[in-house]
Specification:
The chain has 180 residues and is mainly alpha-helical. It has one domain. 58% of the residues lie in helices and 6% in strands. The protein has 7 helices and 2 strands. A two-stranded antiparallel ribbon has the order 1-2.
Length: 180
């Protein structure tokens, strides 16, 4: 009996810029929705936090589970979330674990943005999300962030989406040509 090594599946890599912009679109959408209930009081608003969490779960867990691993931001940039082992859309439990970690970091960023003018030290709330997502920089093979490693997921390129990054590049290129 011999031990046979199985080569890991090859997934198309996603640039960090595309991942960041997709996360940014999802974050902006959820932040704007949750900010509608905000008030001008100093501090953290519990109702706003609950709405942020609910909107995050809907946009980043329920929608990708029913939409081939793509949220609004991921659809805009042609990327999706898959399980590392089987290459299929993760189950709800894996998505909840993954997005629970990212959602907590995003919630801290939202709190920081809401309070940055009154309390400049709120900028420190960006650190957990930076550490979590920064781990993908050290992983040259799969580019997994800490939340991806924990939930055993991977972010890959997709053929299905809006291709917002490509459309913006074409628009910028066309504008540059017209200005000459």
């Amino acid at each position: 009996m011999s031990i046979e090594q199985v080569p890991p599946k090859h997934y198309p890599r996603v640039e960090f810029g595309r991942r960041g912009m997709a996360l940014g679109i999802d974050f902006l959408f959820v932040w704007i929705v949750s900010s509608l209930l905000g008030s001008s009081q100093i501090g953290v608003q519990v109702l706003q936090i609950l709405l942020f969490a609910l909107a995050w779960v809907i946009l980043r867990v329920v929608v990708p589970y029913n939409n081939q691993g793509q949220s609004l931001g991921r659809y805009a940039f042609d990327i999706k979330v898959l399980e590392v082992e089987q290459g299929k859309v993760p189950d709800l439990q894996s998505l909840l674990k993954r997005e629970g970690i990212v959602g907590l970091g995003a919630l801290l960023v939202a709190i920081a943005l809401n309070n940055i003018l009154r309390n400049p030290t709120a900028i420190l709330l960006l650190i957990p999300l930076a550490i979590d997502c920064g781990a993908a920089l050290s992983d040259t093979q799969l580019r997994q962030a800490l939340h991806d490693r924990y939930a055993k997921t991977i972010v890959v390129s997709s053929r299905r989406g809006y291709s917002l990054d490509i459309k913006v590049k074409r628009l910028v290129e066309k504008t540059r040509r017209n200005m000459r």
